[in-house]
Design brief:
There is one protein chain. The chain is an alpha/beta fold and 292 residues long. The protein folds into 3 domains: 2-59, Beta Barrel (OB fold (Dihydrolipoamide Acetyltransferase, E2P)); 65-213, P-loop containing nucleotide triphosphate hydrolases (Rossmann fold, 3-Layer(aba) Sandwich), CATH 3.40.50.300; 227-291, Orthogonal Bundle (Ribonucleotide Reductase Protein R1, domain 1). Helices cover 25% and strands 25% of the residues. It has helices at residues 29-34, 90-103, 119-127, 147-154, 169-176, 258-264, 270-291; strands spanning 2-10, 13-17, 22-27, 43-48, 53-59, 65-67, 70-72, 76-82, 106-112, 135-138, 158-163, 202-206, 209-213. A 6-stranded mixed β-sheet has the order 10-9-8-11-13-12, with helices on both faces. A hairpin with a 2-residue loop joins strand 12 and strand 13 (209-213). The longest helix has 22 residues, at 270-291. It is globular and about 65 Å long. The chain starts with a strand and ends with a helix. 35% of the residues are buried.
Length: 292
């Protein structure tokens, strides 16, 4: 057997990259029974049937998994937000950051369209995240500002691009890897949002890793989790989580909450904290619906 990575799936077949070629693979009956699903990014073992075709026998355990849309073994989530039009959706940014933290994926925030905005707007956005430790890169595909820095971050990673529609995700990916030839959508006059044009998931070789082209990722709910898990998805809370009066503190209405104290002292962004409360309420409501 040989080991490879699933690049894409289509009509019951999986296209698996080996060291020297890509094979069209199917599943054996017993493999279908043992494994619920195979996704792009899965590391699999295949038996060679002929020069172009093989059969998937088994998969290696996944390091990470995104479910909507499904991609396995992602190591980097690049979140693209616009500095111009459309206006940066910071609540969406926070949702995507929670998704990355919960999935164990490193996030990288890219601020696009620097050429038609200004550095002051970038600084304004970054100020809310100063205590998070997240990396920001301000970019422009017109004059290539920030592109070398971005490319260095992608080396050896399996990278998914996410973010708001119209922020320039596809244009960035085409610049990084022109042979992808991804279609870009136009911005509507009223909404200033791009039309999403990707219809399936596919991995492309890039600098010892992969770039993943995916549909979706521009509208998200908070991922399935317990209430107690959400505070751990906000890294700026970490220094204070064990200093509240109650060990089960959710940093909402509880007295003597160290997190709330540091929100009041402006060590934690008020806007980020308000989004935390919104996400916490969504989790509570979801749990309530399940229990009714």
């Amino acid at each position: 057997m040989q080991q490879g990575v699933i690049l894409r799936g289509y009509s019951g077949f999986y296209y698996v990259k080996l060291e020297d070629r890509v094979m069209e693979c199917s599943l054996r009956g017993r493999t279908k029974k043992k494994t619920k699903s195979f996704y792009p990014g899965d590391v699999v073992w295949i038996s060679i049937e002929n020069e172009k075709q093989g059969v998937i026998e088994k998969a290696e355990p996944r390091k990470t998994l995104l479910l909507r849309p499904p991609v396995a073994n992602v190591s980097l989530l690049v979140i693209v937000m616009s500095l111009s039009y459309p206006e940066a959706e910071l609540t969406l940014l926070d949702r995507l950051l929670v998704l990355a933290e919960h999935a164990g994926i490193r996030p990288l925030i890219v601020l696009s369209k620097l050429d038609i905005a200004n550095q002051a707007r970038a600084e304004e956005i970054m100020a809310d995240y100063r205590s998070t430790g997240y990396t920001f890169i301000a970019t422009s595909i017109t004059d290539l500002v920030g592109m070398d820095e971005l490319m260095n971050e992608l080396v050896g990673e399996t990278t998914v691009f996410a973010g708001q529609s119209g922020a320039g995700k596809t244009s960035l990916m085409n610049l990084l890897l022109p042979e992808m030839h991804l279609k870009t959508g136009t911005l509507g006059d009223k909404s200033k949002r791009g039309k999403h044009t990707t219809r399936h998931i596919e991995l492309f070789d890039y600098k010892g890793g992969y770039l993943v082209d995916t549909p979706g990722f521009n509208r998200l709910y908070v991922p399935e989790m317990e209430e107690s898990q959400l505070p751990h998805c906000f890294p700026e809370f970490s220094p204070y989580l064990n200093r509240c009066r109650f060990a089960t503190c959710l940093h909402y209405k509880e007295p003597d909450c160290c997190v709330k104290d540091h929100v009041n002292e402006r060590d934690i962004s008020t806007r980020r904290y308000q989004n935390y409360l919104q996400f916490l309420e969504e989790i509570k409501n979801k749990e309530k619906r399940y229990n009714d």
